[in-house]
Structure formats: C-alpha cells, structure tokens
Specification:
alpha+beta, Neutral Protease, domain 2, about 550 residues, globular, binds zinc ion, three-stranded antiparallel β-sheet, Immunoglobulin-like
Length: about 550
C-alpha cells in the first residue's frame, strides 16, 4: 500500500507498505524481507488466532511476531542466520531499555518487540525445542479464537511439561531490565583451578508512575550458566547456577593456563558482560566461538585496543576468514578505528567480499581511515559496486574522507535511482554536510522525492545561502500538496538558526501571497509561533 508505514496484520489479509525490493536490493537484506513479511505472517497465529487479553499483555502478540522471523530464518538458512536475527533484536532492546527499563507484561512498554523475541528465545533454550513447541501448541489450541494473558502462556507450559516457570516469569515477564555481569578471572596453576568472581551490577532505579505502578529490576537474576575454558589440552566445561549478587565460581581440572574463557557459553542469557581479558583470549574466542553474539562481544573488546598489533591481527583474520558475514562485517567496522598501517590492507580486501554488508563496512572504514588510497577505492566502489547500500555508503564515506574531491560524485549520486532512494539520500545529506551551494537547483528539482531535499535546502538557507532560501520560497505555493509540506519543513530547519531574521522575513513575504489554504494556515501558525519566541519544530502546523 502507498502512504502507509510498516505492516498491519488484518485477519487473512495483511497490509504492507509498498517497499517491495527489486532484484538488486535483495542482496542488501532489506528489512521488508528479513522482518516485515514474516513478522506480519506470524501475527495470523499470535495476535489474530489468539489475541492478547488487554494492552498490558500485548507482548503475546508483538513478542511472538518478533520472535518468529528468527525461527524462520534459522530453519531456512541455519543457526547463524537465527543468531544474526536475534543479535539485531539485542541491539534494539539495549537501545530501548537504556531509555526506560520495562516489564514485558506492562501497559505502554516500548520494548515488547525485541525483549519479547529475546525472552522467548531464552524460554526455548530453557525448555528445549521439542517441549517449547509442544507448549506453544497447547497455548494456541487452548486459546484459539479467544484471548490470553501472560499467565495463560505459563499455564500452557506447565500443563505440557510440568515445569513451573514462576521464577522465570517473575524475572523476565513481570520484572524489568536484565543482568549486567562483571566478571574477573584468576588462574591457580598449583591447584589447577580457575576462579571467576561474578558480580551482578544492574541497578533498580525505577519509580512508581502516576498510576502508582512500579516495576522492579531484580537485584539478582537466578539461572543456570555454562563456562567454557580453553586450554592446550582441550576445553574444560563448567555448569552451575547463578544465584547471588556476588559469587565465586571455582572451575577445577584446568591443568594448563587458560587460552580462552567464555562466560555463558552459547549465549543463553540476555545480558551485558564486562570481563577484562588478555588479547590472546579474545583472539582465540573470536576464531573459535560458534556463537555470533559471543564473537561480536570479543570484537567489541578488541576494538578498544587500537594500538595493540595482536588485536589488529585477530580482527584482520576474522575480516578475511570468518564463516559468517556478520562477523566479517563487525571485524571490518572495528578495523576502521585502527591505524592505516595495519587496517588498510584487510579493509581494502574486504571490498571484494561476496556480502554487500561487509563491503559496506569496508567503505565506512575507508571513510574513517582517509588518505589517497581510500579516496581512490571509494570512487571506484561508487562507480562499480552493484549494491545500492554499498554505493550509498561510498558517497557518505567520500564526504568524510575527502570533502574537496566529493563534489562530482555527489552530483552523479543525485541522479542515481536506487531502492528506497538510499543513494540519492546519501548525496543529499552529503550536500548539506559540505554546504555544497552549487547543487541548489538540483535539490529544488527533487523536492517531490520526500522531505530530505527541502531539509537540505533548509540547512543551506540556515547557513545564509540566499539562493537556497529563494528555492524554498518559490515552492511554498507548489501545486503538489506534498511538496508544500516538505518546503515548510525546510523552512522549519532554516529557522533553527539563532539569527533567522532573514529566513523569517522571507517566509512572511512568501506566506502573504499563498493561494493554498492549508499551507497558508500552517505558514501563518509557524510565523506566529516564531514571533512569540517559540521553537520552529513544536506543535502541529501541517
Ligand atoms: Zn506486530
């Protein structure tokens, strides 16, 4: 559907935004395919067939709909594809939870989508797939064409497996937050033991809201944990229980110095992890660990050591040889923070990767590394890569690496069509960033694209470019209602400059002659608000 955002799971007739990828866009793993279609399809069961009892249990709709695409991709493409999907949910969850930790079963929770997916993944781990799916079958058949609460799901699991998951529910469904582990390791060669001091450092800072409702972040999350200790004689495995704010784990039988220590082996717990380790342990984990979250964590630690040649070597090895694109992509991204001496070789090689995501990461890293070779590679990539996303990233990186030599590429990128206009968007943002006033006429000719060209004109006008200001004024009475709305947005951007008297004066003179009543009313409201000293972006005026 046009003029629509996202998807809506109407019973047996889902509606989707009209962003159907073209053949070339599929290599960039579009959200439309990766998430939107399977998410809305899953709603036919979770949401439509069984519907949440009330808004406080909405995660039963959205958490399951967000969980199921990972199951689909895992089934279709293998375990790494599922881990890849949930790693992205993890990034979303951390961003949302940092703003406000919320229980899954709560009214108006923002994190029901990614947290729901991640908690269901933990639940599947805890029960095992056979018992998990048998329980889901019970849940769906018990509540078919009817409603359900969070506890109905727990009861379905209890009836199917005999497992009473009240502790899991209290921590992960009715409680907020997640465990933040701070781990330190000490090896005792005489005793052949490795001792881990494990602290849970999450804090409960939540207050009651105006309705008196208060959620809690548990002081202690209780759960099983596995630790893998690599040694020259093979791996030593430890299985135990986490059940205290601070506890010591003693792992016996470690007969030679550890070469690697993986806390929560297999990444079964939704968590944050602080664990300062020698570079050699991180390098070993990155090379050996099958789990993509674990690898990403090791890459994040190595990225903090940009002057350590062993860290650079470990990342370069992963960038070239890791068996899944996401690890190669993340290793290349990390190399962008190292010096050109060690990073340029592996980053340049990554431009030939079969995955467009890895090539896109290489392009972004080249933008950070800069220099003649980077600029030449970026220009070549813009001309020859067949991925829309990579070419768009090359435009952005070129602006960052060498603003003086980016102008001709920006001009060509403005005329390059692509899926969801990613290349044109990169060019428009580059023009705004470089204040490339030579492109004002091009931007004015693109005003119907979306709000971005008008916003770029607004940025140029805010910096005092009279030509850009005139281009906005000339289109404030455009025949196309969308263009008039975008132009008003451009004026709003221009009015954010502290000294905006010239912009406001031009808006007033243009508004005086407007023939379209909707734009006239919106422009007058904006002018009135500015004259009262209000912000240009507040309120509704279009
Ligand atoms: Zn949904």
């Amino acid at each position: 559907m046009a003029d629509f955002f996202g998807g809506m799971e109407n019973v047996s007739a889902t509606t989707l935004v009209d962003w159907l990828p073209d053949a070339r866009a599929y290599q960039d793993r579009p959200w439309y395919l990766t998430l939107l279609i399977p998410h809305e399809l899953a709603h036919q069961w979770f949401g439509d067939y069984v519907t949440t009892e009330d808004w406080a249990n909405l995660w039963l709709n959205e958490g399951f709909a967000e969980f199921m695409p990972g199951q689909y991709w895992g089934h279709k493409l293998g375990a790494h594809a599922a881990q890849d999907y949930y790693a992205d949910e993890y990034r979303q969850y951390m961003a949302i939870d940092a703003r406000k930790p919320m229980a899954l079963a709560s009214y108006h929770s923002d994190n029901i989508y990614p947290k729901g997916a991640l908690v269901l993944q933990m639940l599947q781990d805890e029960l095992g797939p056979t018992r998990f799916w048998a329980s889901i079958h019970t849940y769906l058949t018990r509540h078919a064409y009817s409603n359900a609460t969070s506890d109905d799901l727990r009861q379905a699991i209890l009836a199917t497996t005999g497992e009473n998951l009240s502790l899991f529910w209290s921590e992960w469904v009715y409680g907020a937050g997640y465990p933040a582990f701070d781990v330190t390791a000490r090896y005792d060669s005489a005793q052949a033991t490795l001792r881990l001091e494990v602290k849970q450092t999450q804090r409960d800072t939540l207050h009651a809201d105006s309705a008196g409702v208060q959620f809690h972040v548990p002081e202690v999350f209780r759960m099983p944990v596995a630790v893998r200790v690599g040694t020259a004689q093979g791996d030593v495995m430890y299985h135990g229980q986490l059940d205290a704010r601070e506890q010591t784990i003693t792992i016996a039988g470690v007969r030679s110095a550890p070469t690697m220590v993986v806390f929560d082996d297999g990444n079964h717990v939704l968590k944050a992890l602080t664990f300062d380790q020698p570079t050699a342990w991180l390098a070993a984990q990155l090379a050996r660990d099958e789990n993509l979250w674990d690898r990403a964590w090791a890459i994040g630690e190595l990225a903090k050591r940009p002057t350590d040649p062993d860290a650079a070597t470990a990342l370069a090895t992963a960038a070239a040889h890791a068996d899944y694109y996401l690890t190669r992509q993340q290793a290349v991204e990390a190399l962008g923070g190292f010096s050109s001496d060690v990073a340029m070789g592996p980053v340049a090689a990554a431009l030939k990767d079969t995955s467009s995501a890895v090539r896109g990461a290489a392009v972004a890293a080249l933008g950070k590394l800069g220099g003649d070779r980077a600029v030449s590679l970026l220009r070549d990539t813009f001309d020859h890569d067949n991925s829309y996303d990579v070419r768009a990233a090359a435009v952005t990186a070129l602006v960052e690496a060498d603003s003086a030599r980016a102008h001709d590429v920006l001009a060509r990128a403005l005329r390059t069509p692509s899926y969801r206009e990613v290349i044109q968007h990169a060019a428009i943002q580059g023009i705004a960033r470089l204040q490339d006033t030579a492109r004002v006429n091009d931007l004015a000719a693109m005003l119907a694209l979306d709000a971005l060209p008008a916003q770029a004109l607004g940025v140029l006008a805010a910096r005092g470019d009279a030509h850009a200001l005139e281009a906005l004024a000339a289109h404030l009475d455009d025949e196309r209602a969308g263009v008039r709305r975008y132009v008003l947005t451009g004026f709003r951007v221009a009015l954010t400059r502290p000294d905006h008297s010239a912009v406001l004066a031009r808006l007033k003179s243009a508004a005086a002659g407007l023939t379209h009543a909707d734009t006239k009313a919106a422009a007058d409201a904006l002018i009135a608000r500015m004259e009262k000293g209000g912000p240009p972006a507040g309120g509704r005026d279009n």
